[in-house]
Design a protein that fits this description.
Elements (H helix, E strand, L loop, with lengths): L1 E2 L6 E5 L6 E6 L4 E5 L3 E4 L3 E8 L2 H4 L5 E8 L4 E5 L7 E13 L4 E5 L2 E7 L2 H7 L4 E14 L4 E6 L2 E5 L3 E5 L3 E6 L3 H6 L4 E6 L2 E6 L3 H8 L9
Antiparallel strand pairs: 1-2, 2-3, 3-8, 4-7, 4-10, 5-8, 6-7, 9-12, 9-15, 10-12, 11-12, 13-18, 14-17, 15-18, 16-17
């Protein structure tokens, strides 16, 4: 178990870094925003409401995300969160700041943090091989996010190159463009391909594993269907 002294809500991590688990202490009448299906356990005095960020019309385009709001009533309460991906969890306390997350990385935040989906643009979205949308988290308060594999923070002073499948989060001060790491042969045959070229000053959080190579590794072991 890892306990952290910090601003904001009291919390601790368990099982970090392999299968991160988060326990948050909620004071009375305080609300926590949580990714849908991430709640593992909670005290009986905690109430839940579900909200669709972005509205139903934007949900049809894939731009919205479901967030459950948990509020402690008539006293403090404890809630435990289990992220969907088998990997690490991280915490950042935002102080009038903005962090962008890959579309599956959000786990939870204080109610004072604004959480919304952000369109990357067709060129960046289609050619990155990742989602067309990022999750924009801004304001002041606690933010928790998760990865597939471990999480490594990297301070960017000028420029840095990251494979698109390894990006978990990055700070607002960074600009980025999607490009090939080599020629077209590299894109299709080398196992390497599209990268994100960051510029400026800020921080990037990367994950130590990618989902697509794992799926390719697992695929030969899948049972064959008999015709």
């Amino acid at each position: 178990m890892q306990t952290l002294d910090k601003k904001g809500l009291d919390f601790h991590f368990d099982c970090k870094p392999d299968y991160g688990f988060i326990t948050v202490q909620l004071p009375s009448d305080v609300t926590l925003k949580v990714e849908a299906a991430a709640m593992a356990t909670m005290d009986t005095n905690i109430e839940m409401k579900t909200k669709l960020k972005g509205g139903f019309s934007r949900f049809l385009t894939g731009e919205s995300l479901f967030i459950n709001e948990f509020t402690a009533r008539n006293g403090a309460g404890e809630i435990k969160l289990a992220p969907s991906a088998p990997g690490d969890v991280e915490h950042v306390y935002l102080e009038n700041e903005t962090i962008f997350l890959q579309n599956t990385a959000f786990v939870a935040s204080a109610n004072t943090v604004n959480v919304e989906s952000k369109f990357q643009g067709l060129m960046k979205g289609f050619f990155s091989g990742e989602s067309l949308f990022l999750i924009k988290c801004s304001g002041t308060g606690d933010l928790w996010f998760n990865s597939y594999g471990g999480i490594i923070p990297i301070d960017v002073e000028d420029g840095y190159v990251v494979d698109t499948g390894h990006i978990v989060a990055f700070t607002e001060g960074l600009q980025y463009d999607i490009s090939r790491v080599g020629g077209y042969k590299s894109l299709f045959f080398s196992g390497e391909g599209l990268v994100c070229r960051f510029s400026g000053r800020g921080k990037v959080w990367i994950q130590t594993r990618k989902v697509n190579p794992f799926l390719s590794w697992v695929n030969p072991f899948r049972p064959a269907k008999n015709n």
